[in-house]
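Write out the 3D structure for:
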Amino acid sequence: MVGLNQWLNFINEGIEVVSEEMRSGFVLAEEMRFTEMEKMLWQYNMMLQALNEHVNIIDMSIEGMTSDLNRTKQTAEAHAGHLMQSNVNIVALQSMVNNLQNQLQTSSSSSVQPASSTSSLPPAPASTLAPIAEAEKPNNDEAAQPKKDESEMDHATTVAISVD
């Protein structure tokens, strides 16, 4: 029996050695899988970082486009305001022309014939044209000359007021 016990011990030792090798192989295989998973996670993180950088670039582009659109909107609103003011000015000028035409038509003063027969305005009375002619005469008096800091618009406004 001694032989049989030795034989069984030898088999048991072999089983233990094989079991240990299997455990080592299993651990090694698990370590390899773990290493592969770490590599995949690292690649995934790198892709996420690159994606995050692209999203940041897109966000900055959107902010820039939004800013450009806001400036364009403000410019369009300003142009619309100028157009509306121009329209108001045109209506006011048309009203002034109509008033002048009405005054010219109802005036009983002597009338002055226009120099051109192509004029669409009726003849204007001399009393209406006199202030205009006076305003157009050059004035050599220094005190009456506009100061250097007066704009042409101020001068035109002064002439227009004197016509009224």
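The chain has a mean pLDDT of 74.
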